[in-house]
Amino acid sequence: MTRTQLIAAIRRKKSLLCVGLDTEELLIPEHFRAESHPVRAFNEAIVEVTHDLAVAYKLNLAFYEALGDQGWLDLEATIGYIRSKGDCLIIADAKRGDIGNTARKYAEAFFDLLDVDAITLSPYMGKDSIIPFVGREGKWAVVLGVTSNAGAEDVQFLELKQGGTVYQRTIQHSIGWGTPEDLMLVVGATRPQVVAEVRNIAKDHFFLVPGVGAQGGDLNAVLDAGMTKDGGLLINSSRGILYAGAGEDAIPAARTAARGLQATMALALLEKGVLDRSSVG
Amino acid sequence: MTRTQLIAAIRRKKSLLCVGLDTEELLIPEHFRAESHPVRAFNEAIVEVTHDLAVAYKLNLAFYEALGDQGWLDLEATIGYIRSKGDCLIIADAKRGDIGNTARKYAEAFFDLLDVDAITLSPYMGKDSIIPFVGREGKWAVVLGVTSNAGAEDVQFLELKQGGTVYQRTIQHSIGWGTPEDLMLVVGATRPQVVAEVRNIAKDHFFLVPGVGAQGGDLNAVLDAGMTKDGGLLINSSRGILYAGAGEDAIPAARTAARGLQATMALALLEKGVLDRSSVG
User: Are B123 and A76 in contact (CB < 8 Å)?
Assistant: First the structure.
C-alpha cells in the first residue's frame, strides 16, 4: 500500500486507527475456542467489524509464533482475510534487525511470502539492517524510534556527547535510510512531549504509535502532538479493542471501542484540516 | 543446558564452535533438493558430521520464516535432531525485543514450544524486554552487545555524555539484567579490540561471537581477546561450514571446515589452561 493510498484511506475512513491483533487463544471467547482454528476465526470476526473504521492492522508475531506452525498458518489466513477487505495497511510487528544477508531473508519472508505491507524493525544494528526493507513501492520499513515502555529509558534516552539523546540521533539516522514513502517510525504514545519533539525531527514521516489504552497513553495528547496535514499517524490499539467485552459481547464491544477511537480521530482530522468539513458524516 | 553443562561440553569436545544453520534452500547441493524436506535433510547431514566438534548450533530464524509454515516445521525437526545428539546448546538467532507481555509470549514460543536453550535479543527497548527471558534454569538470553556489521557504528558506537559508548553502557546495563548463568552477550568478531574491551566489562559472561569467516573476523585474535578460564566464548561459523564444498563434497567439506576451526580452538583452550595437557588428543 503506497503513501498515496494510505492517505486516501485515512480521508475516506476518517480514521488513523490501527487495530493490533495480539490475539491470545486463552483470552478469546469460548465460542471461538470451539472452532478448528480459534485465533483465525476470532481475528476474522474482529476484522469484519472494524475494517471500515481502521486504516491498518498490526499483527504481533510473538502471539503467532507461540502457536508454532499452526500459528504461522493463522497469520497467513488472517493476512489474506484483511487483504480481501481492501485498503488496509498490514503491518507485521516483528521488530527484526540483523545483518544484510539475514535482513534480505526477512524482507523476503515478510514482503514476498507473507505479503504484508510493512514490518517493524529495531535500529540497534544500524543502516545495513534497515536498507533491505526500503525502496520497494508500497512496502514500508517501520523503524523503532522511541518506544512506549519503561525500559525505553535504558538505551533510547541515554544522552550523547554531541548533544541530544540516542533516540533522537537514531531517528535522524533512520529518516536518512528511507523516505516518507517507504519508512515510518515507531513513536510511543506514553510520552506526548516526545511525540511532538520527534515530529520536529521527522516532519513528513508517518508514525506508528503504540501505547494508547492498556499502556496509558492519552489519545488526544498524541493527536495534538503528532498529526500532520496528511494525518501522519497510525495509532494502534490492541487489548483495548480485542478484549473490550467478553463472551457473546466481545465482537460488538470491539466495534464500539474501535468506533470510539475513530470518532475522536475524525474530529481531530477535521480540526486539523485533513478532512473537509463537508466530508465528515 | 546449564552453564555447568556447557563448560563440560567445551572441555569434552575441546571446542568453542557454534555452527550457524543459516540454511538457504538455493545454496544446498542438488541431491538434498530432491528430498521431500530439503532444508531439514541438509541440516541433519551437517549436524551428523559436526556434533562431536560443535558445542552449540545457532538457527537463524530469517531463513526458516522465509519458507513459511514449512520452514517452521523444518526448524522444529532440526531442533529435535540436534537435541537427539546430546550436549549441544541450541540457540534461536531471532534478535527479538519487545514490551513485557510480548516478550513473555516470545519466551513461551522459543523456550517452551520450540524448546531451544537460548534466544538472541535486541536491547534497544531496555530491561523489560529482556527480563522475561532470564531466571529459568538452563535457558539463556543472548543480548546484542556490539555486532559484527558496519552498521553497528550508527547507534552502538555513539559516544555518551557520561563517557563511553552506547554499546558499553548497554552491556553494563545488560549484565545487570541477568547473571553469567542465564545471560550471554553477542560480541562481533570483526573488531578484536572491542572483544577485549567488552571482556573487561563482563568478565564471566559467555560471548556469542559471530563474524569469523565470511564477515572477515580473525579467529585467533578473538580467542586471544575473549577467552576465559571456562572458555567463555561460543564462536559461530555459518557460511564457512555450510557452503565449504559443493555437490557430493558439501558434507565432507563441512566437517573439514568445522574440524579446522575446532583444532585451532583446542590449541587455544590448552594454552589458556582450560584443558589439561593430558586431555588433549
Answer: no
